[in-house]
Amino acid sequence: MTERQFTVDDLHRILVEGAGETEGGALGPDTIDTTFDELGYESIALLETGSRIEREFGVSLSDEDVMDSRTPRGLIEAVNTRLGTTSGAAV
């Protein structure tokens, strides 16, 4: 059985669906370690993103899990930990 992994593409899609594109630019390998603040995503957008991730991927994320993940890499790693994948931030 193949493990489902949460990727930067998944995060970008969910962020755009929930909050729209920001002036900070698209998420990708070159922005994975840029803070959400620098990318233009505020706390409400991140909490909405966390809710969407929970529904789509069937994981449980606390508000702290989402808010303490200051970068896309951090949030991807948090989600993948909940999914039981061990490969870290899938780019």
TrEMBL record:
<keyword id="KW-0597">Phosphoprotein</keyword>
<dbReference type="Pfam" id="PF00550">
    <property type="entry name" value="PP-binding"/>
</dbReference>
<feature type="domain" description="Carrier">
    <location>
        <begin position="5"/>
        <end position="83"/>
    </location>
</feature>
<dbReference type="InterPro" id="IPR006162">
    <property type="entry name" value="Ppantetheine_attach_site"/>
</dbReference>
<protein>
    <submittedName>
        <fullName>Actinorhodin polyketide synthase</fullName>
    </submittedName>
</protein>
<dbReference type="GO" id="GO:0031177">
    <property type="term" value="F:phosphopantetheine binding"/>
</dbReference>
<dbReference type="InterPro" id="IPR020806">
    <property type="entry name" value="PKS_PP-bd"/>
</dbReference>
<dbReference type="InterPro" id="IPR009081">
    <property type="entry name" value="PP-bd_ACP"/>
</dbReference>
<dbReference type="InterPro" id="IPR036736">
    <property type="entry name" value="ACP-like_sf"/>
</dbReference>
<keyword id="KW-0596">Phosphopantetheine</keyword>
